[in-house]
Amino acid sequence: MALWALRGARRGIVTTRFPRRPEPEAAGWPAPPRFRDGEIRRDLALRMSVACPSSALEVVGPRLVLDLGRCTACGRCLELAQGPGSSRPEALLATRRRANLVVSYRLGHVK
Amino acid sequence: MTPRVLDPGALPLPGAAHGEIDAAAVRLKRRSMAVLRRSLHIRTVDTGSCGACESEIRLLSSPYYDFHRLGLFFTPTPRHADCLLVTGPGCRAMDHALLSAYEAMPAPKVVVAVGACPLGGVFGADRYTRGEITDVVPVDVVVPGCPPSPLALIHGLLLALDRIEERITLQEGEQ
Q1: What does the domain layout of chain B look like in residue ranges?
Q2: Taking the complete model, does pTM exceed 0.90, yes or no?
Q3: Which CATH architecture has domain B18-174?
């Protein structure tokens, strides 16, 4: 029998925290994108919406609409928009209202 | 659907995950005891998922999350379930099974849509899939992600408990 099991039985501990440290690999996991407002040109937005396999990106008038509920974090849009786009650093959490998962960004002008 | 700016109250996953999960777990246990005065029983229905969401749901009972310590249990029958976790894009062949499971649950009941599939991602509406499961059952809580993290699932269950409390209040008001 393992030593930790004997020690735990002697102290009356039946469970413990596991793992002891946060998981460092979590920082490298794929995450949905976020974009800088006003820095996505219309042609780039249209190319990203075509490349999105889950129809999470859509150009609606002067804005780029990102539906985080549909996003699968495949990263194809970030391959196209490496400058104004980046992975979202926070985890997505649950919500009661579906509209809370829809984010829109203002499109920039072509220079 | 009106585009909205995302609520910035999201929890960070890397780094601070352990403490955040513990805090969410304690809140969930308190809510479960206060709202239900008993354990929360969960029934899962797979409507054509790839299995990734089920893998994350299964992790809830792993030693890391160990949601049994919070009074949460999976149940094999909808007759004993308070919460219905739905995964998958809503294959039309599963309409009857999903609706039967929902109708067999005693009130108050809550439906949690898990993953991008039941929210319309991955598969659109066609002759085989619904795309969104809201056409079949009313969805109370949505958990985004492909697949969603167990932290998001715990948060969804926390919201589901709030929803159950609202339903109880409504029922008491009707009586």
Answers
A1: 18-174
A2: no
A3: 3-Layer(aba) Sandwich (3.40)
